[in-house]
Amino acid sequence: MLTYAPDDTLAHRLDPRSKLAVQIGFAATALAHTGPRALVALTAVAGAILVAARVSPLEALYAYRYALVFLAIAPVLAALTLGSPWIDLEDGIVSARASYRVLLILFVSAAYVRSTPVRASRAAIQRTIPGKPGQLLGIGVALVFRFLPVLRADLRTIRDAMAARLGDERGAVDRAGTIGVLGLTRAFERADRLALAMQARCFAWNPTLPALAFSRVDYPVLALAAFLALSALL
Amino acid sequence: MATHGDSVDLVDGTVVRQFARAAVLAALLGALGPISIPLPFSLAPVTLQVLFVFLAGLVLGPVWGTASMLLYLAAGAVGAPVFAGWEAGLGPLFGQTGGFLWSYPIAAALIGAIVHRGTDLRDPAAVPLPVVVLALAAATVLIYAMGTAYAAWLLELEAWEAIVGFALPFVPGELLKMAAAIAIVNGGRLEPIQA
Amino acid sequence: MIEFRSVSHAFDDVTVLEDVSLSIDDGEFVVLAGANGSGKTTLLRHCNGLLEPDSGEVLVDDTPVSADLVAARSAVGMVFQHPRDQFVAATIGADVAFGPENLGLERSEIDRRVEASLEAVNMAGREDEHIDALSGGEQSRVAIAGALAMEPTHLVLDEPFTGLDDPARRSVLARLESLAAEGTGVLLATHDLRDVFDLADRVIAMRDGRVVVDEPPDRAREALAGLEVRVPSRRADRP
């Protein structure tokens, strides 16, 4: 599992907004191009971005191994043809190129994940999206990070308890229903307690926002983001 | 201390409760993400996630159900390992499962709108069964239409290839999740927060 | 000062608080005793306006709570049961900063308060640690720090020792004791008085929504019998 790790790389020093902009620019142009020359250029950019965050390509591949399976199957599915000649290599190659650019998009997002702590992402959200939606989205994202391990433990407990009570022999609907209702009931009990605690600490629409400022290194990166986005139109 | 009172704009108690539930449900969806079983003949995983997308619309309604799904996507985009296979980042939102992920907020909104018919929440157990079934069926069609169409476009697949890979294998699973959602709602153990 | 004047509260026709009057001074360490369901939690939630009385009035520093919720919530820091569900961020520093951020304070002042609050609960310098990796006692102390960062005059705690083992309980208690010594009023609700009895300046006990005891500990002992609360044996009786 790829997560944030403290480090002193170029990517770690960038403003999270610059990094988000680059990702969006990169995705835009990658979604627009599947030609061989474009793929070579995109590979070079993605490689540079990984280096800037000190993420090895193998590590990134491993983080997205699950997606990798699907990206590998797609060209096969595309190549298969009903009836003679059964395999259409041309179709398969087109799909393989399309799959490859998805992999590059995933690589670029790995660099963000490794180099950006939650508080920086929250700051980027709250400083980019104005008003109440930005405040809720920023705090809400922080809450998801906070409650993820808590709810994972809840689900583990529920499944262990079901297995202990011969839950494996029960019907699938029953099982899904039990996980659903127990999972959600517990989660909502936690949410109700959380809501009280947030109110007690004056949860407000207009808090002091986390500090965030572009520095000199951000400007060339923003220019890169703009260039990537514009190249989608080429 | 009184000086704060003039400028601090407190979030209303009902909103805090709805928001907390939306955020925790988003985390629950993320906690389920890794519990996914890749099917040998399919490109998309079977997870219980869609069940909770249903429940978001049914229990939280069109506004907070949608908000919950958006929080899920946003948290995943900035690095919470909440997508299938513990994945995180903006990439998966553009990747082969992107269409499925983006359909979640719309599906929750659709279910919420059909079942609650507005922003005042009703107890879904009191809504006629055919309406609930219709809402869930419509949401399922939407999720698979968006998921399959995007994957087909992204990976240069033909429509039938994408349908065989991304939709058909899941019909039994989806029927199961709809049945589970209806059973949960009719169990009456999850009451929505009335404004 | 927190003051209740003839406060009553009912949930769906069930009376939970009936004609409660009491006052708690700054710097006082008060234990609120009573069995489960006696109305302790409901009473506490009136201190900062999470609940409003059906009749009567609650005042914090002579201002009705309902007239200035922000002032009441700043003056009365509250820590609930299940600290695990009270955190808004994955890391300690980000969570403790939540209250002061909501008050709209300058970033430098927020940082100062986070530092001071963590120091007050013996967690100094641990801002970047993950809350999920902490022990139960440490989580309790971070929850207390989150309340302290509002710089309250009173700290209100609901069954803070639930689920804590002995060393953790002692570590929390030691912090509360020193906070009270430094002038923060403490109002602590519990059904188990054994650890807190000797620290208390006053014991208030409830039964069926009414205040039935409001005395210094040495005089409250007799009256507490029969209230389904655990009271320590007399000092002289102990080995």
Structural description of this entry:
The complex is a heterotrimer of chains A (234), B (195) and C (239). By secondary structure, chain A is an all-alpha fold. In chain A, 75% of the residues lie in helices and 0% in strands. The longest helix of chain A is centred in the middle third of the chain and has 34 residues, at 131-164. Chain B is mostly helical. Chain B contains 8 helices and 2 strands, in the order ααββαααααα. Chain B has helices at residues 2-7, 13-32, 49-77, 91-94, 98-116, 129-154, 159-166, 171-187; strands at 36-38, 45-47. In chain B, strands 1-2 form a two-stranded antiparallel ribbon. With 239 residues, chain C is of the alpha/beta class. Chain C has a single domain, classed as Rossmann fold. Helix content of chain C is 31%, strand content 26%. In chain C, strands 6-7-8-3-9-10 form a 6-stranded mixed sheet, sandwiched between helices. Chain C has a 4-stranded antiparallel sheet with strand order 2-1-4-5, with helices on one face. Chain C starts with a strand and ends in a 15-residue tail after the last helix. The interface between A and B is large, with 86 and 74 residues.
Indicate the CATH class of chain C: Alpha Beta
Mean of residue pLDDT of chain C? 91
From the N-terminal CA to the C-terminal CA of chain C, the straight-line distance is: 39 Å
Helix content of chain C: 25-40%
Order of helices and strands of chain A: HHHHHHHHHH
What name goes with the CATH superfamily of chain C? Answer: P-loop containing nucleotide triphosphate hydrolases
Sequence stretches where pLDDT stays below 50 over 5 or more residues of chain A: none
State the end-to-end CA separation of chain A.
36 Å
Tertiary shape of chain C: globular
Oligomeric assembly: heterotrimer
Secondary structure: number of strands of chain A: 0
Structural class of chain A: mainly alpha
Task: Tell me the number of structural domains of chain A.
Answer: 2
Q: What is the helix content of chain A?
A: over 70%
Taken as a percent bin, the fraction of beta residues of chain A is under 5%
Are there runs of chain C of 5+ residues with pLDDT below 50, and where?
none
Domain ABC transporter (chain C): 2-233
Organism (chain C): Natronolimnohabitans innermongolicus JCM 12255
Family (chain C): Belongs to the ABC transporter superfamily.
GO molecular function (chain C): ATP binding; ATP hydrolysis activity; ATPase-coupled transmembrane transporter activity
